[in-house]
């Protein structure tokens, strides 16, 4: 009869701890995956200047670093 009231707080503490750790690690994994994807997509919208090798936006006309005129942006390959 005494085991129920004594074990209930301990069981609830472990359940809360387990849920907290599970949610936290799932969140960290989600941030890691989304962060890598966002960084890759941001870099994919850039290209390098042929003169100074500076990174400029894909549709730039002049390099912001050296001021050289950039050629036409390369065509985007079609999706498969």
Cross-sheet strand order for the largest sheet: 1-2
Outline, from the CA principal axes? rod-shaped
Average pLDDT metric: 79
N/C terminus separation:
67 Å
Strand content: 5-15%
Count of DSSP-assigned helices: 1
User: If you compute it from the alpha carbons, what radius of gyration comes out, rounded to the nearest whole angstrom?
Assistant: 26 Å
| Helix and strand composition category | mainly alpha
What oligomeric state is this? single chain
Give the proportion of residues in helices.
Answer: 40-55%
According to DSSP, the number of beta strands is 2
Low-confidence stretches: none
Query: What's the order of the H and E elements?
Result: HEE
Largest sheet: 2 strands, antiparallel
Question: What does this protein structure show overall?
Answer:
The protein has one helix spanning 3-44; strands spanning 46-48, 55-57. A hairpin with a 6-residue loop joins strand 1 (46-48) and strand 2. It has a domain at 3-46. The protein is mostly helical. The protein has a two-stranded antiparallel sheet with strand order 1-2. The chain is rod-shaped and about 75 Å long. It is built from 1 helix and 2 strands; from the N terminus they run αββ. Helix content is 52%, strand content 8%.
List the defining traits of the structure above:
single chain, 80 residues, mainly alpha, two-stranded antiparallel ribbon, 1 helix, 2 strands
